[in-house]
Specification:
The complex is a heterodimer of chains A (113) and B (116). Chain A has no helices and eleven strands. Chain A is an all-beta fold. Chain B has 116 residues and is mostly beta strands. In chain B, 0% of the residues lie in helices and 52% in strands. Chain B is globular and about 45 Å long. The chains are: A mainly beta (113), B mainly beta (116). Chains A and B meet through strand 4, strand 5, strand 9 and strand 10 of A and strand 5 and strand 10 of B.
């Protein structure tokens, strides 16, 4: 069974640009979560999507947004990139609306220069 | 306001001995706890979880203990192996609280080094 897959693995953007990160959940999982791990910091909750709807978001500005597609894959968009957005972005998925363990992908390393 | 804390940034253990990783939390509404292992440049790997209605859960070499009165959980690895060397994160969730659904609150991690 394939795990959670994220693309791209690495992404380099210039300040002010937009970044789009993609995630494919484990087959059968309907919930997708996004987390940010900035250098020296722990994992910070960004967004939760379930059945195509945004169910919850963490303490991040509105320029962090995303969506979930009918096949349950998800996209995270970061607009007006700032240097401090440089981080490892992790996607996770779970079944049963999230009341079980979340399984993480390998992450996308975003570098803003 | 760090609701989940792992006060030991690092731990070194001899191969074959027990590794004990600790985690404290402040929010009594947390109802589910998880441990993840993470290697550099990789995503966290789920290890083991425990519901707040239990005080112990075992899976092979891994056992998680929950002490709700002390708001403390620990992960025991017996016996420790060099391949266990990684950063271990504890995480907590609180589905029963409005607007906390889907969110895992992570500790800062403990780097475990198992020496041959």
């Amino acid at each position: 069974e394939a795990g959670v897959t994220q693309s791209p693995t690495h992404l380099i953007k210039t300040r002010g640009q937009q970044a789009t990160l993609r995630c494919s959940p484990i087959s059968g999982h309907t919930s997708v979560y996004w987390y940010q791990q900035a250098l020296g910091l722990g994992l910070q909750f960004l967004l939760w999507y379930d059945e195509g709807e945004e169910r919850n978001r963490g303490n991040f500005p509105p320029r962090f947004s995303g969506r979930q597609f009918p096949n349950y894959s998800s996209e995270l968009n970061v607009n007006a990139l700032e240097l401090e957005d440089s981080a490892l972005y992790l996607c996770a998925s779970s079944d049963e609306g999230g009341h079980t363990e979340a399984f993480f992908g390998q992450g996308t390393r975003l570098t803003v220069v | 306001d760090q609701q989940v804390k792992q006060n030991s940034p690092s731990l070194s253990v001899q191969e074959g001995r027990i590794s004990i990783l600790n985690c404290d939390y402040t929010n009594s509404m947390f109802d589910y706890f998880l441990w993840y292992k993470k290697y550099p440049a990789e995503g966290p790997t789920f290890l083991i979880s425990i519901s707040s209605i239990k005080d112990k859960n075992e899976d092979g070499r891994f056992t998680v203990f929950l002490n709700k009165s002390a708001k403390h959980l620990s992960l025991h690895i017996v016996p420790s192996q060099p391949g266990d060397s990684a950063v271990y994160f504890c995480a907590a969730s609180a589905w029963g609280i409005y607007n906390q659904g889907g969110k895992l609150i992570f500790g800062q991690g403990t780097e475990l080094s198992v020496k041959p």
